[in-house]
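Retro notes
What went well: the complex prediction finally ran end to end.
Inputs used:
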Amino acid sequence: MELLKERILRDGKVKEGGILKVDSFLNHQMDIGLLQEIGKEFRRLFPDESINKILTIEASGIGIAAITAQYFGNLPVVFAKKTKSKNLDGELYTAPVVSFTRGTQFDVQVAAKFLGPEDHVLVIDDFLARGQALKGLMQIVERSGAKLAGCGIVIEKGFQEGGRELRAAGVNLHSLAIIDSIEGGKIQFRQE
Ligand code: 5GP
């Protein structure tokens, strides 16, 4: 997606440890016009009319998924929670995730009442690095008996293994921008 790539080149900042900061337009301050274009692109890439729910993970996935949902006929968005709160009651689906940015392990959880065998789910997230977050969400989809329609990622870091592994496993994965290298602070996109 050219508009996104241009924005990453203009406003993205390469940090230590293979981290790309996009907090001025994607995951702290959000550019809603850009998110709308992202939502339209996900709709084009996942035209399946039987998709009836979008699943993401807090916090950065929520804004992206909510705007994307508007291009899927205002589908409900469920976001997996990272902390167990008193508000999260009843039966839960839980999966472990190791955070790439924080280096810690935590459980992601979704209330069972919001996901079940009647659902055909599109999973959305901001970044794909080692694939931990997506694998956790996919485990939750599987446990719930729902069907996975695919995974939509805004920025995939193709120099980390997540995307390769998930595609090899047959996941219907689309990333709007794939970065193959950020060496020396220079961002290089995969040519499609
Ligand atoms: P994974 O689970 O695929 O290893 O990492 C994906 C998760 O880690 C995403 O949900 C995202 O929040 C975070 N993440 C991974 N790499 C980056 C990065 O380079 N920049 C930012 N801002 N977040 C990242």
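What we learned: The chain has a mean pLDDT of 96.
What to try next: split runs per interface for comparison.
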